[in-house]
TrEMBL record:
Pathway: Amino-acid biosynthesis; L-threonine biosynthesis; L-threonine from L-aspartate: step 1/5; Amino-acid biosynthesis; L-methionine biosynthesis via de novo pathway; L-homoserine from L-aspartate: step 1/3; Amino-acid biosynthesis; L-lysine biosynthesis via DAP pathway; (S)-tetrahydrodipicolinate from L-aspartate: step 1/4. Belongs to the aspartokinase family. One of its GO terms (biological process) is lysine biosynthetic process via diaminopimelate. This is Aspartokinase. The lineage of its organism: Bacteria, Pseudomonadati, Spirochaetota, Spirochaetia, Spirochaetales. Its EC number is 2.7.2.4. It comes from Candidatus Aphodenecus pullistercoris.
Amino acid sequence: MTVCKFGGSSLADDAQIRKVRAILEADSSRTIAVVSAPGKRNADDEKVTDMLYECNALAQQNRSCRHVFDNIARRYIDIAKGLKLDTVKLAAALDEIRQNIDAGRGTDYAASRGEYLSARIMASYLGWEFIDAAECIVINGDGTVNPLSYERLAGRLEEGGHYVIPGFYGANEQGVVKTFSRGGSDISGAIVARAAGADLYENWTDVSGMYAADPRIVKDAKVIEELTYTQVRELSDVGASVFHEEAIAPVIEKGIAINIRNTNAPEDPGTMIRPSSEKKGIIGVSAKGGYSKLKLRKLMMFKRPGMRHAMLTMLHLYGVRPSFSFFGIDSIVWYFESGQANDSVLKSMVERLKKDFQLDYAYYERDHAMLGIVGGHLDDDTSFITACAALKEAGIRINNVNYGSSNTTTLIGVNDSDAKRAVEVIYKALF
Ligand code: ADP
Ligand code: ASP
Ligand code: MG
């Protein structure tokens, strides 16, 4: 059987939802749908999840969220009317949710309601059974999936049954609603695919697969026909946001294939993601901005066992968790997401690092990006030299390079303001 996850654009309005039904009905092996909250209907539109976060922020300031919530309610009512569904129960559910948000049920509860309502509507439209993710998906304190989820879900799913399950959220072991990080419905889909023993996990979105470069940057980028779990994880980790980088983990052990497909062009084959591939060469390039960079140096640093670990522990105390590391003989560069700490926190952290570890220097810089060139057997491939030459030719400064430590990805640190152009330039040079 096949588990199908539909992203926000596939649920954006009643016309999109009709396409979803046609897709589900076109193949009898598609018996479980995992759904996101309604996304944008056009470039100027708002995602329901963003509006729910806004409602919660208002409630936290003891202000009523009613004016924002009314827009959310209208979206769902319009969808239900468009699908010719009864709106009485829906209106009551919306009212109850607004009151709960106003009463301070918290961020995760508020954010989760987008998926909850989508799944309720979808279940009645299809005549399939609704399963509340809060009853089955257990999320640990650190945001990872608790393996209990697989047992609980499997206990609810009967062979031959048809189900709609909301994505993005579950509950902690105490039963309190908790969400994954943004884009987390991809993770929910993977969890459900594993629990259901699916042969295939279809991830339906608004593009015909994973492209060799972000289609918003490179207009004529080509779709990647096939890639491995590792490649898709590493590409999404550097910004290829079509598939959440944590959504691979649940399906790896069972080797379930993933197919990224386009709800607006269901005839397109999309991208197949499989456990492994012998293919060599470059498959994609992507960049992710919004990083800050911490630079440290101390003579003979690496002669002191435990020092790097102790510094990382200190970083964690300040809320800084590096995503990428580059090591020199006596120096370290750590890239971390800029949102993790404000300037005053970082200034104190740097002072403390300097003092406690007697560093020769320590400082941080904002506005960095990390670019990844992803492929197979890249530790045995010199195309990254071509990429560097193309960047130099385009006058783009390279800040850091990591080649050879992964056979899947070569990392190139560039300034945030150069990131998009760097993707374009490298795509042109390598594809
Ligand atoms: P969904 O709501 O269906 O989960 P997302 O917005 O999360 O969809 O992901 C789809 C979007 O990802 C595309 O519309 C595209 O703009 C963006 N994207 C970024 N990089 C890539 C890439 N390399 N290939 C395809 N899409 C990409
Ligand atoms: N609706 C959530 C978000 O916007 C989760 C998802 O779409 O996957 O992040
Ligand atoms: Mg997504």
